[in-house]
Write a structure and sequence with these properties.
Helix content: 10-25%
Family: Belongs to the pseudouridine synthase TruB family. Type 1 subfamily.
CATH class of the largest domain: Alpha Beta
CATH architecture of the largest domain: 2-Layer Sandwich
GO molecular function: RNA binding; tRNA pseudouridine(55) synthase activity
Largest sheet: 10 strands, mixed
Keywords: Isomerase, tRNA processing
Distance between the termini: 29 Å
Pfam family, one: TruB_C
CATH superfamily of the largest domain: Pseudouridine synthase
InterPro entries: PsdUridine_synth_cat_dom_sf, PsdUridine_synth_N, PUA-like_sf, PUA_sf, tRNA_psdUridine_synth_fam2_C, tRNA_psdUridine_synth_TruB, TruB_C
CATH topology of the largest domain: Pseudouridine synthase
Length: 301
């Protein structure tokens, strides 16, 4: 008898290669894990590399609830050139000598883009305007506005400022930066806005995501490594890292799995999704406190 292949339930933390869309990575993972049940938690631009969180099998039910609210990036911003896409993928639309821009001016510009700010996403992005993707409208030459939305930039740090010469001979400055920000922030929009504030234009030339919520780059694996050995973070471990935990006794575990709404301790009121574990540490369900009771969001036990 042939043994049936079983793929473990859990999260796969991928170190995404440049040039791949998030959908490309999902398609590749379906082949590696030999299952159709693969999804991703939040996209990453094709140019960017780094942490992309995938769910495999039953863990796909976790993805929509993961509070991956904070993300961390390392990137390079080029001052002196604007591009159509606000990154190196798009054609250059203007060039301005940036060699006279001072470090003080850069620091002042970055200070304005730190904290709670209103950001206009890049026009070539996946945001929908009246049901149509923004990048589709942009490619068709349509003139449209994207409304600004609130984002939080917890930290925006410049590690290095390098003089460089662009391909067209323009004197540019390359800034090596790190950004810690809320979900939904466009790093290329930060590059664009910093360049606009300094009067020379700017775009993003490199980007690496080093953290998504609790999942860091040192736990990520490249697609080649995953092809050699599929490394899945077990669903219980993934849930424990992402959510507050609540351990129940065997009796209450049975009741929960039979659809009974358990009374929840006061400490979980307003806590958002809570991961419920049985005495053996098995992950049973994701619940939310509602009028003192545990409302099931997804059941795994």
């Amino acid at each position: 008898m042939t043994q049936k292949h079983t793929t473990p339930d859990g999260l796969v933390i991928v170190d995404k290669p440049s040039g791949f869309t998030s959908h490309d990575v999902v398609a590749k993972m379906r082949g590696i894990a030999r299952t159709r049940r693969v999804g991703h938690a939040g996209t990453l631009d094709p140019m960017a590399t780094g942490v992309l969180v995938l769910g495999v099998e039953r863990a796909t039910k976790l993805l929509g609830h993961l509070a991956l609210t904070e993300k961390e990036y390392l990137g390079t911003i080029r001052l002196g050139q604007n591009t159509l896409t606000d990154d190196a993928e798009g054609e250059i639309t203007s060039s301005t000598d940036a060699s006279k821009v001072t470090r003080d001016a850069i620091d002042a510009g970055i200070a304005k883009l730190t904290g709670d700010i209103m950001q206009v996403p890049s026009k070539v992005s996946a945001i929908k305007i009246d049901g149509v993707r923004s990048y589709k409208r942009a490619r068709e030459g349509e003139d449209f506005e994207i409304p600004a939305r609130p984002v939080t930039i917890s930290s925006f740090t410049v590690y290095d400022v390098r003089d460089a010469v662009a391909d067209d001979g323009t004197q540019v400055l390359d800034l090596v930066v790190s950004v810690v920000c809320s979900s939904g922030t466009y790093i290329r929009a930060l590059a664009r806005d910093l360049g606009a504030d300094l009067g020379v234009g700017g775009h993003l030339t490199a980007l690496r995501r080093t953290r998504v919520g609790p999942y860091k780059i040192d736990t990520a694996r490249t697609l080649d490594q995953l092809q050699q050995e599929l490394t899945v973070m077990p669903i219980a471990e993934a849930a424990a890292a992402a959510f507050r935990g609540w351990q129940v006794d065997a009796r209450r575990a049975r009741l929960l799995l039979n659809g009974v709404r358990l009374d929840m301790p006061d400490e979980y009121a307003g806590a958002g999704p809570v991961a419920v574990f049985d005495p053996e540490g098995r992950f049973l369900a994701l619940v939310e406190e509602q009028k003192g009771k545990a409302k099931s969001l997804a059941v795994f036990g």
